[in-house]
Design brief:
This protein is mainly beta. The chain folds into two domains: 2-138, Immunoglobulin-like (Sandwich); 151-228, Immunoglobulin-like, CATH 2.60.40.10. The chain contains one helix and 15 strands; from the N terminus they run αβββββββββββββββ. The chain has a six-stranded mixed β-sheet with strand order 2-3-9-8-5-6, with no helix packed on it. A four-stranded mixed β-sheet has the order 10-15-14-12, with no helix packed on it. Strands 1-4-7 form a three-stranded antiparallel β-sheet, with no helix packed on it. Strand 8 and strand 9 form a beta hairpin. The radius of gyration is 31 Å and the shape is rod-shaped. The termini are far apart.
């Protein structure tokens, strides 16, 4: 009878031990907080997380490690690959923690097939699980400044200057400025907007205006000419 009880205990332990070990294995979750316009993070097929950022943007990485039961200490190891420069911390289950902040420089600009990689490993005394973060750094591209075509107008005509077709390859927010380069001075309304208007002078003249488009890093310009004449079949732009 005693041998049978011992055998039963051993059988139960053999069944329950793997379950206990599995229950204590940590699961790692990555939550990303991105600062900078048009940053993008998407999961990949191998469960890695891929983020595309550009120069001037900052990526904050927050990691949360769950363990069951919650009192099991978990060690988080974060390593840059292939440099293997790692840092780790230990905490119990709770809120996500900020592991690091990354702001790329020119030296970090990557090719499409060669991202920067960070590997996160959450480990207990029983098991470990890992997940990889891939960071693609893109160089900033200058915007394109586009104005409406040169115009011929009559005196006292209201003239519209348009930068509507200007664009930015990176999707950055653009800033506009109109300046008069030559011709009789006119009062320019909306000089720092997409559209500017002015009243054509009373006498025939040639006026040149310069559009400056900036994405915060690059600025480009485009000139447009407005000819004021008293005898023309003038058309609105």
């Amino acid at each position: 009878m005693k041998s049978a009880k011992i055998l039963l205990v051993l059988v139960l332990l053999s069944v329950l031990a793997p379950l206990v070990t599995h229950a204590q294995a940590p699961a790692v979750q990555l939550s990303m907080e991105l600062f900078g316009p048009w940053a993008l993070c998407t999961p990949e097929l191998d469960d890695a997380l891929a983020c595309t950022i550009r120069l001037g943007q900052t990526l904050q990485v927050w990691v949360q490690a769950h363990t069951i039961p919650s009192w099991v200490p978990t060690r988080l190891i974060a390593s840059w690959l292939p440099d293997n420069a790692s840092f780790d911390s230990v905490w119990r289950q709770g809120e996500a923690v900020q592991v690091f902040t990354f702001t790329p420089t020119e030296a970090h600009v990557t090719k499409p097939e060669e991202p920067l990689r960070v590997r996160f490993i959450a480990r207990t005394d029983y098991e470990s699980i890992s997940r990889e973060l891939r960071i693609y750094v893109r160089a900033n591209q200058p915007p394109q400044a586009v104005t409406n075509p040169d115009q011929t107008v009559t005196p006292y005509q209201i003239v519209l200057l348009s930068a509507f077709d200007s664009s930015d390859p990176d999707g950055d927010v653009l800033h506009y400025r109109w300046d008069q380069i030559s011709g009789p001075p006119v009062l320019l309304f909306g000089a720092e907007t997409l559209y500017a208007i002015f009243l054509a002078p009373a006498e025939p003249a040639t006026l040149v205006f310069r559009l400056t488009v900036s994405d915060g890093a690059f600025s480009v310009t485009k000139d447009v000419t407005v000819t004021v004449t008293s005898d023309c079949p003038c058309k609105d732009p």
